[in-house]
Amino acid sequence: MHNQQQKVATRLKLIAQIIASITAVFFVAFLIAEIISNLVYEGQEPFETAGLILGLLQLLALAGAILTWWRERIASLILCLASLGLGIHIAVYAGRNHFITWLMLGSPYLIAGSLLFISWWLTKANERKLEANLKA
């Protein structure tokens, strides 16, 4: 039973790491390309507040994706906060179709954060059961 639970936790963690890493790297690369495009083709323009906030939220998500390899609970919190921040950002700055936009930008981080938290919870529950068995 304990071994099966640990296998599930490990698989959930791996899936969360893959989702968070691919999504964060893609969107950070997209933002870097947008910055380069603005500087090269349109001259130096000041950054807009919306773009700056979006970039910071994506960097937060990238930090969460990196932390998934070492600190599952903190990384899951950061990824869920990034998803929430993107939802708020979209609600304030996006024109239409807020939910669809959030599904593309924010939901991968929420899914990865949730899977990572479940993985962490299963691992801790497994450790508690093992400690209880050793004491008995």
Describe the structure.
The chain has helices at residues 2-41, 49-67, 72-93, 98-105, 107-135. With 136 residues, it is an all-alpha fold. The chain has one domain (2-135). Helix 2 runs antiparallel to helix 3 (72-93) and helix 3 (72-93) runs antiparallel to helix 4 (98-105).
Which helices and strands occur, and which strands form pairs?
Elements lengths: L1 H40 L7 H19 L4 H22 L4 H8 L1 H29 L1
What structural keywords apply?
87% helix, 136 residues, elongated, mainly alpha
Summarize the structure.
This protein has 5 helices and no strands. The chain is an all-alpha fold and 136 residues long.
Helix-strand pattern, N to C?
HHHHH
The biggest sheet, with number of strands, parallel, antiparallel or mixed sense and barrel status, is: none
The Cα radius of gyration reads: 18 Å
Strand percentage = under 5%
Poorly predicted ranges: none
Choose one word for the global shape: elongated
Give the rounded overall mean pLDDT: 84
Distance between the termini: 17 Å
